């Protein structure tokens, strides 16, 4: 079909399993675009979908823009398919936390987010490769990764489920011994967690990386030495800096972390098991995002 000048072909990659409400995103998309000149195509992700399947769908659609409808996992899947390409990626937040959508200021309202897919501006952002896995948002070892594991084990989702998982983790998680090489310096420390931060805040709204930017040429490493809840709240609600006795922040293009014992590890909210080594490197200007 020949498109009129100024019209867009949009491909919506919809994860039917995202979120906890009953929104019919396929209907919302079709209803929104029916009166418009733009062409919208919807692809519903099957269970256990792999990037190669989505890549083929994207290639066949010849879309001007590809929109991830889901949470950070759905966005990550689309980003894996378009890493290093110029095709803009949009977001319709439909996950439990929607961390990257919040990071980029994407409206949580479906109609507002749909409008943004055609009227928003484009921004090149970096990603981080962590243990050969693409990280669009935040990856970490230690306490938060253990929370993610506990959260996955609970039947209750959403913020109440996250709060319950955090409470369980506070009582049962132990600190770890870490060593990492960063910018020619070797750091050795006890730690509650170490964060590899592409973005600035978790989906809960806690700003763990106040110095982070998505469009520079470095990512941040946050060494949390103690369970510093008050430090995180201070960053969340004030402009005061971290207490270096409890939390340290580093900027880098690459990183190697070693731990004495195997520790819990997560990438973009997905628990990856236990590891005793983490390698990370920056992927500058990896994708183009509609903001």
Structural class: alpha+beta
Architecture per CATH nomenclature, i.e. the level-2 architecture of the largest domain: Sandwich
At the fold tier of CATH, the topology name of the largest domain is Tumour Suppressor Smad4
* CATH hierarchy, class of the largest domain: Mainly Beta
Principal-axes geometry comes out as elongated
Alpha carbon gap, first and last residue: 28 Å
Largest sheet data: 14 strands, mixed
Low-pLDDT windows of residues: 1-5
Rg, Cα atoms, Å: 20 Å
Q: Per DSSP, what share of the residues sits in E-state strands of 2 or more residues?
A: 35-45%
Can you give a write-up of this model?
This protein has 291 residues and is an alpha+beta fold. The chain folds into two domains: 9-120, Rossmann fold (3-Layer(aba) Sandwich); 133-284, Tumour Suppressor Smad4, CATH 2.60.200. 28% of the residues lie in helices and 37% in strands. It has eight helices and 14 strands. Strands 1, 2, 3, 4, 5, 6, 7, 8, 9, 10, 11, 12, 13 and 14 form a 14-stranded mixed sheet that branches. Helix 3 (72-82) links the parallel strand 3 (65-70) and strand 4. Helix 2 crosses helix 3 (72-82).
């Amino acid at each position: 079909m020949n498109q009129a000048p100024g019209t867009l072909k949009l491909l919506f990659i919809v994860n039917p399993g995202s979120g906890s409400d009953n929104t019919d995103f396929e209907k919302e998309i079709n209803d929104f675009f029916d009166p418009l000149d733009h062409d919208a195509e919807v692809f519903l992700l099957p269970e256990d979908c792999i990037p190669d399947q989505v890549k083929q769908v994207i290639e066949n659609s010849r879309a001007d823009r590809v929109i991830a409808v889901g949470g950070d996992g759905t966005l990550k899947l689309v980003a894996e398919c378009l890493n290093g390409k110029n095709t803009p990626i949009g977001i319709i937040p439909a996950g439990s936390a929607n961390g990257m959508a919040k990071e980029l200021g994407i409206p949580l309202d479906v109609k507002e987010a749909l409008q943004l897919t055609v009227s928003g501006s484009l921004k090149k952002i970096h990603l981080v490769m962590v243990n050969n896995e693409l990280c669009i948002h935040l990856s970490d070892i230690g306490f938060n990764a253990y929370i993610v594991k506990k959260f996955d084990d609970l039947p209750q989702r959403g913020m109440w489920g996250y709060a319950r998982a955090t409470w369980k983790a506070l009582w049962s998680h132990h600190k770890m011994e870490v060593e990492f090489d960063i910018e020619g310096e070797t750091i050795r420390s006890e730690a509650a967690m170490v964060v590899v931060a592409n973005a600035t805040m978790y989906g809960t709204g806690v700003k763990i990386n106040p110095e982070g930017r998505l469009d520079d040429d470095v990512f941040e490493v946050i060494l949390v030495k103690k369970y510093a809840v008050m430090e995180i709240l201070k960053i969340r609600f004030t402009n005061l800096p971290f207490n270096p006795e409890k939390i340290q922040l580093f900027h880098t293009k690459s990183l190697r972390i070693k731990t004495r014992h195997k520790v819990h590890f997560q990438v973009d909210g997905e628990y990856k098991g236990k590891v005793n080594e983490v390698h990370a490197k920056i992927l500058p200007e990896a994708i183009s995002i509609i903001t």
